[in-house]
Amino acid sequence: MAVRLFIGNLPYAATEAELRQHLSVVGEPTQILMPVDRETGRPRGFAFVEFADPAAAQETIRRLDGQPFLGRSLSVSEARAREDRGPGDRPPMGGPRPLRPPLGAAPAGSPPRERAFGPPAPPRRQGAGASRKHRTERGAPRGPIPIRSGGRLYAVEDEGEVGPEPEDFDDVAKRADEELPED
């Protein structure tokens, strides 16, 4: 009975001939299937390899799992049938995502929450918004501080008018010219 292996983490540039040559060290594969992306036509980075001899398949898993192939470490395991996988085991398009509960979901083991009526409340702000809220409660200003002038204002006409020079004004610059010592 033929055994099918899953070979993951293949380089995208790998060809079927290169993979066949790499696997033939252990045993000759009967069939190699390298799926390609429907939209781009580029290889998807994995392959299914079928061996007629189960002992050769097990030896391939033992010897080649984690071994480098064109710069990447291969992941070799026995392929599972589609029926073995559950409907939710397949990650969405775009790659695997971490499992986390949806927003607003109750923690495991807690009783379900019931609402009396009305729409759900908007989510509470966290992070910088929360600290900003406490700042305004303490009496700090909410925005820029307004500028208030308390001094005397002059009109444009007043700028040109200069009063008479005070009589007791001591002009140091004029006096310095007069008092220069002669050498």
Could you describe the 3D structure shown?
The protein has 183 residues and is an alpha+beta fold. It has a domain at 1-46: 2-Layer Sandwich (Alpha-Beta Plaits). The protein has five helices and six strands, in the order E-H-E-E-H-E-E-E-H-H-H. It has helices spanning 16-23, 54-64, 128-137, 157-160, 172-178, and strands at residues 3-8, 31-33, 46-51, 68-69, 72-73, 75-78. The chain has a four-stranded antiparallel sheet with strand order 2-3-1-6, covered by helices on one side. The radius of gyration is 42 Å and the shape is elongated. It starts with a strand and ends in a 5-residue tail after the last helix. The relative contact order is 0.11.
What's this model, at a glance?
This protein is 22% helix and 13% strand.
Mean pLDDT: 76
Gap from first CA to last CA: 123 Å
Please name the CATH architecture of the domain at 1-46.
Answer: 2-Layer Sandwich
Secondary structure tally, helices: 5
CATH topology of the domain at 1-46: Alpha-Beta Plaits
User: What is the CATH C-level name of the domain at 1-46?
Assistant: Alpha Beta
The helix content is 10-25%
Question: How is this fold's topology laid out?
Answer:
Layout (H helix, E strand, L loop, with lengths): L2 E6 L7 H8 L7 E3 L12 E6 L2 H11 L3 E2 L2 E2 L1 E4 L49 H10 L19 H4 L11 H7 L5
Antiparallel strand pairs: 1-3, 1-6, 2-3, 4-5
